[in-house]
Amino acid sequence: MAVARLSRQFFLLLSSTFVALLPLTFSGSDSEALLKLKKSLANAGALDSWVPGSAACNGPKGSWRGLVCQGSTVTGLRLDGLGLSGTIDVDALADMPGLSTFSVENNSFTGTIPGFNRLGALKVLSLSRNQFSGDIPSGYFVKMGALKKVRLSYNKFRGEICYEHKQQMS
């Protein structure tokens, strides 16, 4: 009886340890967010390495194309010059809390600037050489406290680009 109870406790301990370590070995949430982003893009053939069921970072075949990873966390997306167009799903980007760099330079994105201002942890935003157009709303960058670099050249933006940064109070 004591051996059976001890074996059961050992099994429960081993099972809970395995479940606790599972998120450290495979970051499914980043992969799911990236696949959601890919679905929103047109001409996404260059992202063929983004396959469901595979690790986005450091998988057996390496990281998915265009990713910058730190361990199993996606910290950057560099999707420059891949012929991408369509809609950039900012909700998918928001599902990647480690994302600090987003670059889609030299692609074919059109329309007004998407809601990147919801990504407060973003340090680098590179949108140059696309076909974005219209005004950038006043105060657009205010909530982007971590932002260090913004590249918007060679688009069709109009008006002034106002970068207001709130000073942190000590």
Automatic annotation (TrEMBL):
Domain (Leucine-rich repeat-containing N-terminal plant-type) ranges: 29-69
According to the record, the signal peptide region is: 1-27
- Which InterPro entries does this UniProt record tie to the protein? Leu-rich_rpt (IPR001611), LRR_dom_sf (IPR032675), LRR_N_plant-typ (IPR013210), PRK1-6/SRF4-like (IPR046959)
UniProt superkingdom:
Eukaryota
Q: Please provide the record's keywords in A-Z order.
A: Leucine-rich repeat, Repeat, Signal
Q: What single Pfam family name could you report for this chain, choosing any that match?
A: LRRNT_2
- The entry's protein name is Leucine-rich repeat-containing N-terminal plant-type domain-containing protein
